[in-house]
Every structure is written in C-alpha cells, then in structure tokens.
Design a protein that fits this description.
Largest sheet: 5 strands, antiparallel
Number of strands: 12
Helix content: 25-40%
Number of helices: 10
Strand order of the largest sheet: 5-4-3-2-6
Radius of gyration: 23 Å
Strand content: 15-25%
Length: about 350
Amino acid sequence: MTYWVYHERQEAMLCGQHALNNLVQANAFTPVSLAEIAGQLDQMELNYMANNNEGGVSSKDYLKRLAEGSGNVDESGNFSIEVLRSALLSRYNIELPNIRQQGLSKVEVTTMDGFICNRSAHWFAIRKINDRYWNLNSTLERPEVISHFRLAAEVEALQNSGYSVFCVVDSLPPPCTNEAMMDQGLPKYWWKEEDLLKGKTNAMTRADDPWKDVGSGRRLDGGRKSSVGAGQQSKPISEMSEEEMLQMAMEASLEQAPQDNAVSYPLTDEPAVGVKIQFRMPDGTRAVRKFLESDVVGTIYSYVSSKSDDRNVELRAGFPPKDIASKKDETIAEAKLAGEMIHGRFA
C-alpha cells in the first residue's frame, strides 16, 4: 500500500491554516472560513461583555474591546488557538487540548494521533501517518520524519523552548492511500512516503506523478482537454497561489450564483433608537448600524450593498456562520439578528 503525506508550505502569514490542513491531511480550511470563525468568537466575547458589564454596549470596557478589533485574528492572518479549536470541533468533532491539561499526563505521546505547536505567531503540525510521526512545519521544504524514540524528547524540547503544544489523542481522518483521497488536497503538496523515507532528493509530489492523469483526459502532447473556448486555457491549480485560487473560486461563484435582483428592499434613514448590528463588510472593513426590530432582513442587504458600490452580496450570521438569504422577508426580531455580527462577501 502506498501512503502519501500532505504538507502545505508557508504562504503569507497563514501558518495556522496550514497547520490545521497538515494535521487533517486535507485542504479543509481556508483563510475565509477561519476568519468567519474568528469574527463569531469576537462577537460572542462582545455579547458576553454587553450582558455582564454595567453600562452594556456603552460601557468603557465594551467600547475599548470593540475599538481594539479582533482578538482572534490580526491583519496578517494570524489566528488564535480558539479559532483553531473551533474549526476542528465544528468540522471534525475533534478536540484540541493542551498536552499539559489535567488527565493527559498519563497518556503516552506515542499513542496520540497528532499535535499542533505554537510559539509567538507561528503554528505547525506533527502528525502520525502509517505509524510514523512527521514534522509538517510549513516552513520546511519537505516533511521530516520523527522516530517514536525521539517523539517524547522532541515534544519536551518544544515546551522547554517556549512552545505551547496541543494534542489530538485520536480520531483524526485516516491518511491518504488512494487516488480519491488525494483530491482532498492540492497536488503540489502531496509527497510519496517511500521517497521521503529513502531520502530521495527528487522525492515525488502528486504534481509530478506521471500516473496522476491517466484516464482524466490528458492529451498525448501533455495538454489537458478542456471545455473552455480558445484563448481561455487556465493555469494549472498546482501552480496557483492561494490568492489566485481564491479569485478563481470567487469567479466560479459569480457564474453559478443566481442573481437576486427581483425584489428590492428600500433602505430608510438610520433610526435614533434601535437595535445595533455589527458588520464585517465584503471589503474587510467594519461597521455598526442601528435598525428597527420591525425592519425586514432585506434592508440589511440593501445597507451592505449601498456600502459596496451596489454590488450583490452574500451575508452570513450565527455560529457556525449560515447564509441568511432565506430570511430576507422576516423581521430582524424574527430572525434574531439584533446585536449579531454579520459577515459579508461579494456574490
């Protein structure tokens, strides 16, 4: 049986995202999905302060926290441990406790499935694959094997050098052993385990595998059959940056998403008294606006669109974030959006 090791490399300041994806051995989390979780956690913290501080949303502590911005993601894309924990829990039902948590000291580290390590703003994963542990630090050129004998010493050394180590005792997704599973990750990040173990300088990645396109429509000249018109040949995904892949996904979404222009919702002036709703706009800026509880959710869409050059937008709220388009004709009170954080993106 052939095993493959998934190892995303560092791009921008997204090591938290890469650590999660390397841990689960799939391109499962994106900067957008993690940022949405960060926003929801921020909102939960603000709601707690509003409900427990004297003065509510007008208290000095609340206003100071609001002015500080997110406590769960910074402008460079560094995510907090709570974001990583929430992401794993919501998608895989996997917990990520600190290895020093009470009760874990009796668990042998060589029986654990994996680890997430953090110091300052850097995160990386260690993962068991085919009964071997691999250092999947996104700053490394390739995965590095860690023997069972060395694992406990490595974990202890990390802690002694200032790292916080979080662990997954069990239940991580199985490692990749077939073609179908490889579709869960980006081709250029898959490494054939046997090549890594042999120390080959030209160890094969999925992007280099000469058999990967058998039966997939590749022409004899090395090109790929495509349904796009002449002059529209696309860049291979394996050569795209994260920004290019995100742009491609957005363009595909624009092509496929139905345009909801049939019904317009008039936007009235902001009331002097009303319920506050916070926004993370499609362009990343923040805003706060008051609405009447009797206003329909459609007016929220009109507001965000008016601040976004009248472009169509998608809005999400709740935890985990859910699309609220189906609630456009409900009142804000009925949709329970008073005091919520709403995340926008261009449709």
